[in-house]
Please model this.
Amino acid sequence: MVKLVWNIGTVACLFMVVFLYVPTIAQGEIRGNLEIRGEYFPDGPKFPKQSTKRWQPIVAGEFQWQDEFFDAMSSKVSVFGKYHPFADRELTGDIREGWIGYLGASSELKAGMLNERWGRLEAESIVDILNPRDAFEDFQGDVNLGVPGVSFSYLSDQVQYSFWVLPYSRARRLARGKDRFRLTELPLRDENFSHGRAYPSAAGRITTFLGDVEVGLSHFYGHVRFPSFEVVLDAVGRPLGLRPQYDIINQSSVDVLWVQGHTLWKLESFYQVGPEDHFFAVAAGVEREFPSIAGSKKSLTLFAEGYYDDRSTSFSVPFTPFQRDVFVGARVSLNDFASTEFQIRFTHDWKHESTLVDVRAQRRLDRVWGVEGSVNLFVNAQQDPALGGFREDHRFQIKLIRSF
Model:
């Protein structure tokens, strides 16, 4: 039986879009894509209840619609859906964005399902906290879930002031049951929000531009976006599962981007105060582009980043895979008509001596069709709490993409 999983915020936003904008949808800009994916897992799963299927087909799609109406009014909808017959929840979906807004010359106001990103680091933007992540769609956490709320921003000279009020909290989407890329063998129970899902979160951000330097100062108050975990025990003390726990936190952060020709210098840092721990994190990196390789039109981009986080390692503290990590990577772009691109990325944990190897390639076949491939390998991951559950989940993936 197909299981369809939505949430209250998504359903509310969907009804808003349908009833307000269907009469004018044909007038807006429509884009999207349909993906046919094939995933191959050469090893059997680590945990007993995970799917044992080596080849796993997936169909996914994204629809985007954007329109401007009246003088300064605008709206955007981005809807994602996926059918995965060997996943614990075969049919999943999300409205990643779905807002109506006023976009003026120096200010903007949006209301609906919002999606915002902070920070510029390649492997992990540690200051990016406004939206929860969809770790089922991407185990590396690069996909945001939409969050319902209202945002306002104002640009004055070289300073932008932004504010968010988010009246409803969403949980991070984690792999469970039959899914690969599970964190633990223990089953996940229903999540608990310490003040209830309807308890509002709020955030403020100031971004200033000083010549070649962009500086962002942010503060977030509300339910944490990556949970801690509570062990659920039976009557005699045996563990039955893990309950994701979302506590109220305060997090202050700074991020800096310095542009020097073809080189980008990046810094991100935050201090988080929660009920179980107060901790500090910092990450820094450099991105260097070589726009011409041996006089050709091919370009090479190199990345190097380092991460430090002093939080305690405990189920009662929100988890992070980036505590003592170094990331290096390279991207080669052929800059041809087919937009051919290759990447190789290594993330190494100094404490546990584990390494995530990530190889990617993409190419357009024609004006509407494209293909992407990737390989994920987990090296020496036995003792790493971030990768230990994935150590049998080496994956080869290919996508055939139809854009419209």
